[in-house]
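subagent[fold] <- orchestrator: predict structure for attached chain, return tokens only, no commentary.
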Amino acid sequence: MGVVPPETGFLKGLHEITKKNGALLIVDEVITGFRLHNGSVQELLGIEADLTTLGKSSVAAFPWRPMAGAQN
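subagent[fold] -> orchestrator:
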């Protein structure tokens, strides 16, 4: 298992399509969030997701998944 990099320009193109159509861009950074780069793959590729999932974890035996999103 590992990271399969997207074709060059794929995520930027997807970002443009979602903005144009009023859809949310959700980026799953479970693997890339803290392993690939401090700013995640979004910073490396110059995109900003509307919603980002960052990982899986367990706190007091309860599974949880951190998510972050823009306030607007």
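orchestrator: received. Logging for downstream: The longest strand covers residues 26-28. The mean pLDDT is 77.
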